[in-house]
Amino acid sequence: MIINYLKHLPLFGVLLCSCACGTKVSDTTLIRGSLEGFTADKVSIYVMDYGINEYIDVVDNLFTYELPTNKAVVATVTCVKDRKTLSVPIIPDGFPLSIVFTQDGATQASDNRKSVNYRLAQENEVYHKQVDGIKEMMALQKAGAPKETIDSMASILRGYGDLLDSFSREDIEYHKDDYLAANALVELNSLTDEQKDSIINTLDPTVIQTERVQLIQKQIHGRLYTKEGMHFIDFSVETEGRQSHLSDYVGKGQYVLADFWASWCLPCIEEFPNLKDVYDKYKGEAFTILGIAVSDEEADSIASIEKYQLPWPQILGTGDVAMDTYGIGGIPHIILFGPDGTILYRDLRGERIKTVLAEIFGK
């Protein structure tokens, strides 16, 4: 199935050659959209780098919009159907394109094969096949399907993963001046932070200067400077007129298990019982837990602390400061600091926390 799909993909070299032919590109990118099988009054468009986050009127199930051309950025066009969010990414590269929303999803198609959106549409098609395949795999496992059936689906999913990985590597090599290279940095989990940082320096300045790449680079540098074995980096925030520092708790002779969390984060809340267990077992002069609320309103953090009865100290209102300092891209993220402030472990979760602490304290 994967092999047949690969055979029908246009050769990348042909696409690259066609892109080199000198067709004049417009200063604006025209978007034409339609809704099929349902109606809506509006769709929305979001472009981080332009500060655009607004609604577009839909008239007779049609809409149009123009964006300044910049193929280094990405826009997301979204429509809500019966509380289901349908979204499609587009790159404003100067070639007109069409968006179609149906009851099942959204697709985009460029009017010109020289458009980078032609490539983006290919990648999105494979990505959605992968997502659908994962759902099918979960259904098969739940239904107790035969091992051969599950193994076959697993092979198909590996094929999709390999194809997306191949796309990303080609994007880094041949799309250094557009959004696809920036997206590939996120998708290629096999790359180390050092490799990603080196690749960023080879990209076109227009891509490097985008907010997305700046954020990626900030997270990479945060992780590179706060690896396991390194000394902690301090940060401070002001809460209700009082300065709170990480160094108020870390490097003071205790093991400190720092939980980066937020009130809106369900996986963070699901980790609380486990944290309570280790806190009750090890709390004292040698050990404590420190909560660090990130990207959260202080009132919401306080309400959650009270609701879930979290007894350990907290640093509230850190916004993005704590996340940026430690290069954290998702929460919960739990770090164990040694008594002298050395970062012993990063990204601890669940039973792993108990195992690590048992090894340290011998119980």
Describe, in plain words, how this protein is organized in 3D.
A five-stranded mixed β-sheet has the order 13-12-11-14-15, covered by helices on one side. A four-stranded mixed β-sheet has the order 4-1-7-8. A four-stranded antiparallel β-sheet has the order 3-2-5-6, with no helix packed on it. It contains twelve helices and 15 strands. Helix 3 (116-143) packs antiparallel against helix 4 (147-174) and helix 6 (193-200) packs antiparallel against helix 8. The chain has a domain at 236-361: Glutaredoxin (3-Layer(aba) Sandwich), CATH 3.40.30.10. Mean pLDDT is 90; it is low at 1-21. The chain has helices at 2-7, 12-20, 116-143, 147-174, 179-187, 193-200, 205-208, 211-224, 266-282, 298-307, 321-325, 350-361; strands at 28-35, 42-47, 52-57, 62-68, 75-81, 84-90, 97-101, 106-110, 236-239, 242-245, 255-261, 287-293, 314-315, 333-337, 343-345. It is globular and about 65 Å long. By secondary structure, it is of the alpha+beta class. Helix content is 41%, strand content 23%.
